[in-house]
Protein 1
Amino acid sequence: MTKPKILIAFYSRNGSTETLANAVADGARQLGAEVRLRRAREFVTSEVMAQVLGWQESADKMNALYEAPTEDDADWADAIVFGTPTRFGSISSELKAYIDSLGGIWFQGKLNGKVGSVFGSTSSKHGGNESTLLSIYTTLAHLGLIIVPLGYADPSMFGAGTPYGATHVSAQDSLRPDEAHLAVANFQGRRVTSVARGLRDAQFIGAAV
């Protein structure tokens, strides 16, 4: 059997969502997955980015580390995990723009039956983590993905995160995800990989019968 293929497509401005993305990737790799980590790109002008201290520098640094997600990445994957900071209680426009670009392969049915999961971060307490993750579930359903939440299926879930996906509150970027939140993100990577492997192997056996 080949390794499960996991795409982690995220947007991060100041590093909190990036940190969670890497913890999800670590969990997936622990179960033998092949992982592609991709950062969605800005589409606003440099003048807009200059209005936020450090935005351009942070973007340049992360863009040097991660390729932009593509339609081919989504086609390749057995599972797609989306990560986003909250923007007024909803998904970031950068990640949404990537999702919207998948209309071509969606129309061809190439996303049907892949695993889908979500994680996110926000700057302030009650800043919209849960509403953001839940709103993306609607999009995953339209894409034809099989939604995999976390529930309380691991002890780490009783210390941090949400049953919908890993989360973090950065307190105006003064806090990085701690051990408890990274444990939830790691579990998310393992859970997604386990489900993706099970679904793919079942399809393989069914095709062989």
Protein 2
Amino acid sequence: MFLPILFALLFLFSSSNAADFCVGDLYGPQGPAGYSCKKETLVTVNDFVYSGLAAAGNTSNLIKAAVTPAFSAQFPGVNGLGISLARLDLAVGGVVPMHTHPGASELLVVVEGSICAGFISSANKVYFKSLNKGDIMVFPQGLLHFQINAGKTPALAFVSFSNPSPGLQILDFALFGDDLPTDIIQETTFLDVVQIKKLKGVLGGTG
């Protein structure tokens, strides 16, 4: 009596329809849970391999920094797995301004150089430190945080996220890089109009 029941259970679990993975179909619809799944018959090993983080990003820009993502949009194998990665290159004087990732916590590991990094808690307490090669720092989900090259040589770090699409909002661009009217910014930030218009000019905002 016991053996037939055991065999029946083994058959039930071995024939389960539970998927091992959900490689993102980048040509299909995307919802809050991520991309829809690519047909398993079309999945190859290349869906689980990504080489895009091997090359340094272009830091010839306003912030002298580059973030190269390996999110589900670039690396469909991480779709649905609750993980992703990115490469962070900081030239001398480079900075990643105050920003948040609404959908994920972040873990940063310094590979080269020195990076001053920190975040602000919801109680407005500041946690920051200069990190060196091999140091790791975590940034809790949704909190404002930043990274600055704290040395005299280029810095390199890799960051992992607890979401294949962590999202991003940069505070400076949210305030000064769009069409939010100057008078509203003035009233909500206590900055003067001249400074606001100067920042809008630098960051491409209007209004």
Protein 3
Amino acid sequence: MAVTDEAITKIKDMIVRGELGPGDKLPREADLAERLGLSRNSLREAVKALSLIHVLDVRQGDGTYVTSLEPSLLMGAMEFVVDFHRDHTVLEFLEVRRVLEPAATSMASLRMSEEDIAGLRTHLDAVPEEPSVEELVKSDLEFHRLVARGSGNQVLCSLLDSLSGPTQRARVWRGMTQSNAVDRTIAEHRAIVDAIASRQPDVARAAATVHIAGVEEWLRTSLAPEDTARPGLA
């Protein structure tokens, strides 16, 4: 194991064991290095790496602290990695969405408040009668974010947020090339809200599955068989 990796592991273990918790300040560099049996150099590199993925917060002139460790904060690192995806993997991101979003929608049908459900309906009602592709995609992203948040599961919500970027261009492309994309998207969104409002998790799951699978199937058939293995098309 590389020296820096060992240092990262040792700091992580301190957090996992509860020796350091969210918001706690790390001991002085010299003291912590001695305690963990590390050189100050390797400890510095470990702190730098853990600050990049939002586990530690280095405050100049104050010290280094463990962050809140909230899922939304930690998932930011995953979102950073996801941004480097190659275009031909968009279908794989859609496959993951097809697994996770129906689960989030099912949970939302049991956990969303009546006020939040009314907010979903208000959001859909605010979409212009003839929205531009940009307006439709913006509304679509926000709709799915609200549903994910309604699941009450921060980890699931953060995961879905991180998957939104890679599929955004597919949404735009669909809006530009599929003649009924606007009507179909809005109708499917309303079906999802109705299922959530009826407090029927299985129906909500099915409605979300149909919606995501429709986008996935459209993308599959839009790509020529010989081009599906090549980047630059999605």
